[in-house]
Structures
1.
Amino acid sequence: MLSPADIDRIRNDFPILDREVGGARLVYLDSGATAQKPHQVIDAIDEFYQRRNAAVHRGAHQLAVDATDAFEAGREAVAAFVGAAADEVCWTKNATEALNVVALGMAHASAGLGGAEAQRFRLGPGDSIVVTEMEHHANLIPWQQAAALTGAQLRWLPLSDDGQLDLSELDTIVDETTKVLAFTHVSNVLGTINPVDRLVDRARAVGAYTVLDACQSVPHLPVDLHDLRVDFAAFSGHKMLGPTGIGALYGRSELLDALPPVITGGSMITTVDMESAAFMPAPQRFEAGTQPIAEIVGLHAAVDYLSYYGMEELAAHEAQTASRLIDGIAQIPAIRRIGPPADEASIAAVSFDVDGVHAHDVGQVLDSRGIAVRVGHHCAQPLHRRYGLTATTRASASVFTTEADCDAFLAALAEVRPFFGLS
């Protein structure tokens, strides 16, 4: 278990945490949206631009060799971090793009692109795509689009009252017509950790592909994509202490090599004539154009940082943080938390509704005390609608969150309703 001294040492690596907001010490509880960056990540990006900046895979000069080595070293490090092979990790600008690559790639296959190998992904009338009611819009809207383009039916697994998936009708909803089961590993709103094994088992029983949104699990939990047995997965660098502008698509190698690309151009082809083109195997077939090289270098540094402390240790720290937040909120009157019961495993992302106060007003009161949280629907409108809400306030922690941060947040939250004259 990480000691308080360890957490203080971690906190000192994040320059932005020295800021004050409104005359108060910054308490950053919005890591579910984007995590802050340690100086090791910032310095790695700076060093790349100062010493190694060049286009990758395109030049014979030394800078190009150095840049290419850094580019591919980042791929190897990130792949190892999530339990994948290097050729199973394709760079995207974020997880949203990665999920679109899979959904629209399948739609392209359904339109006849990609040849015989791509026909395994074909969708059409009589087929179904299954998602869940807790999905971030990034893992919902692409599948809505794929269904509209192909004529497949979109279905979803519902939410229970206690913030977990209701799997009582799993075998009915995921049936022999199902070609894709797309689901989040961890809810960005509820913090719920979903039973990946059970969902993958059901998908495999009916021959469906599984697509995992791992944005909220990779930064907070030990993740091994091979052990999880999913076919595709997506995650984003900026939530795991890395830069913005870089994400990753994971796929089993034989599937990536068969999936038609949806973003095409230079650097992803073998031959081109005026009427046709042939594409490289994965991962290059999904990496058209100039790549975010410095961002990949920064993500490599973030992975090294997380690995130094160990994801098991960091997950244990965040589990303690989650308990502190959940237990503290439960002690404040007239606040309704949405999420799994306190004794169920979850990450430290806690969403709640303050009776009589709009989430935006809650956020402003907290901000006036130096506390940064998220307000709104968190790109999950169907989830909020399920619980009769239009918006919530979310406090989400990271590796640098301290007990003092939690206590400052809870003390400020207790003042919100009195601030508006409510008792």
2.
Amino acid sequence: MSWTDKVIDAQQFSSLGADLYIRVAYSEFDKVGNVKKIVTITVITGTIFLSICTYLLWKRMANLKGRKMKAKEILLFKRTEAQPKFHSDNLDQVKVQELPLFNFEKLASATNNFHLSNELGKGGFGPVYRGKLPDGQEIAVKRLSKASGQGSKEFMNEVVVISKLQHRNLVKLLGCCVEGGEKMLIYEYMPNKSLDAFLFDPHKEKLLDWRKRFNIIEGIGRDFGMARIFGNDEDQANTNRVVGTYGYMSPEYAMEGRFSEKSDVFSFGVLLLEIISGRKNSSFYHDEQSMSLLGFAWKLWNADNIIALIDTMIYESCFEMEILRCIHVGLLCVQEFAKDRPTVSVVISMLKSEILDLPHPKQPAFTERQIPLDKKLSHSGQRIFSVNDVTVSKVQGR
């Protein structure tokens, strides 16, 4: 049957009643089906889209969380056979994971994309750049060079050491950046530059009289002795990588990788003689008579003319004995063998004249001119070459 009239007064009965079947045109039935298809497709598409968005959001959050975890983990020093061991009590005291993490893009912006004009210097670690944060604070960014031959070991060593040693005489470590393949340390910027900018400048050295230089010597003496943080035992550590500034490394460290408190003492001795003489250790490298400042000082000592080492800018007869004592201490610090050098605490006592009788110094290290390697030939006529893993830095201050 075909119903052609309106359907009125339709009710739903809880019981009884009868089903009413209505025949409709095929075209009308097709419209109803299309609506159902559209609704179905829309629901399915929306569900898939929301699922994809939810997955991508979750993945992004997981990646960010993983990156942060990785950054924290890489700052925690892990003991391996290939790197110097840390005393466990020292390591526990260093909460490296609490060191502020800087964003790479923020540092790139602060240094104008690490532009050459902002480069302050280069070291065995890598270049150091001057930067300025959005709040106006000036910083020095020490960026690990990928071609330096150094890696996470050296980076973590420095982070642990400097994090532990926040001292008024040390440049303050503000934070670090560990992002992708980048590893950077962020220090406070020194507007007055480093000591060498004054000490070796013929115009500025006049600002450093003997009293100021002696105060600097004493202050630096209280920063030395960091080597005790490292070590397989209480005395020394062996490392297969040597990192430092040429001219300041002790012979046992530069040649054998043996690092101890006495290695620090050697570096301090070189610096002490530089401060007194007003001359760079490197200024003698092309001298035919002396290989270094140490050799020059030793020659004057043997000639009983050590007073000639004193910078004329600081010499006053009333300070002569104090200056000569400092030179004596400096020569004791740069002894060739570590066992002959005094400890840091003894050095400070010597400088303060708490120890009056000083031992006679022996011949310092690096005092004899060596034959250049390219002039050494074997009996077969072939050159002799040596393999060295040492990484050194420029002598200029940074």
3.
Amino acid sequence: MSLALFGAAGLVVFAVLVALGIWQVQRLHWKLDLIARVEARVAAPPAPPPSPAQWATFDGTAEEYRRVRLDGRFLNDRETFVQALTDLGAGFWVLTPLVMADGSTVLVNRGFVPPDRRDPASRAEGQTSGPVTVTGLLRLDEPGGGFLRSNDPANDRWYSRDVAAVAAARGLGPVAPFFVDEAAGETPGGFPVGGLTVVSFRNHHLVYALTWFSLAAMLAGAGAWIARDERRRRAAPRAGRKAR
């Protein structure tokens, strides 16, 4: 490869590396803005969730992790158990329909139970049958299943909180296109254990940006060294001829 062609290829790679670095800086600002918006939602006073009239135009990106308050009655006989791995160990999320005063239904993730608490009889105190007020965080639907594991409604095996599939399997009819993670300390008897929502975002964009910019700087330095060495080699024969 000629030096000119090598230099042109190096300039293309340099431009790509710089562009990747700039993109990661943009992603960093986007992520910081997202974190700030989510933290504000989590800290805000609870408000009613989107109404059925708003479900068709529901914008999850603008609503996720917003604190909400629900009033209604649980359909405890239609619980769904979703496999979960939490700080408390392996077990299940208990997803329970809540019928609100206006007749609409919202799935509520009441929290975590270990395998020995899956049977409702083992946590009878938490099977609230009367009117309840639930506060928690609005979460987005998780269709399909978990990592490498698909939901199997026919065999009642669930690996994600798939709102539409759960509603169909339990014969619930129309339900909200989201679910709500119940807050901690609201369940009599302590089970299910609520308030385990992990609000965390990976934010390595600054590291990625520095990596791309560093590679670009290294490439530029190598290119400068090669160009200087080439000039030195070309100048050497001329200097030899003059000396003779």
4.
Amino acid sequence: MPPNVGLVHPKEYDIKDSNVELIGSDIDHRVKYTSASAEPAWNDGRVGREAGLRVWRIEQFQVVAWPAERHGQFYDGDSYIVLHSYQVGQGGNSKLGHDIFFWLGAHTTQDEAGTAAYKTVELDEFLRGAAAQHREVQRAPSDEFLALFPTLSIRSGGVRSGFRHVEEPTKEEITTLLRVFTNPAGGRGVVVYEVEPTWRSLDDGDVFVLDKGDKIWVWQGKDCSPMEKAKAAQVVHDMTLAKHIDVEVLAQAEARSRRVVEMLGGDDETPREGFRQCRPLTSSHDRPPPSSGVKTKRLFRLSDASGQLQFDLVKDGPGVSKGDLDPNDVFLLDDAGQAVWVWEGQGASHAERSRWLQVARRYINWLQSTQDDAYLVPLAKVNDGYESKAFLKAIQV
């Protein structure tokens, strides 16, 4: 069955597009730019003009700046927009390149996710189409997103809103368990991830920080790395700045480390080691290679040159080059299951421009027939002439 037949809606974040005939047209772009130019979040004199990292959280349909000191900190009940602007070229040929990420927490509301997606498109319009747009799902962020933050922290909870009310626990009720592990994308990054406070969340290879309200316990798995130990120490330092409480560090090999297991519901039957729990966050590095062992890339063309909108496979092999792309159309690149890229040519029609997201979603859902977690595949869009480094790497032969 071809990828454009018999497809279903995505499993998560089923954000439906408005059925507006002029989406993608010159009129549509002008209307969106006018709206974007009135958005306070984009008009602080720095967005689109300075290199750097900017983060906003969606709060009751509004785009609210996230403090610089909290960059890298996210709540699983929220949606965020992240803008990374960087210098491209040198001297007189220098310009700013942009990556826009809309990050969707596992428990964000449909309204927040929809607002983040819409505002991402609006921000791209404000940047005159010079940005790459990335959809980021909490469980499987792209390598490009992970590389932005030396420390990525994901905690339970979210902004107070009419759709979700976050209760503040009393001191006696606090039992928070944080898992500290190295960034799955490599490098020297570390992830701090709040997990269910039970001994079944433990893993011999990581460090865990247990906050009981009146005391903090650090449990160091026997196979954890020095980097994870150091980061856990920093996390505990930050946690104790506002409250002076005792901290106890326990190595798994120590007999007294059983105290942490007991506080997490363990008993005499609970093993002393051999704790194994899949990490709650994956990257493309964790995806298994194709069963054939060959990294096949597939390139599809979305075109209405024939008078009807068609989605056709134009190349299937180990490599795709820039010469395979036609500026009069929109193309979808399946990078051997590691990511799905959409490339929009400068001369693409408004029908082609307006359908790219719908087609990309349907393609990813078609992949579900052979790959259960295909909906987690990173999805990004780039424009002709403003390709990101990651996309250019993906199309190298």
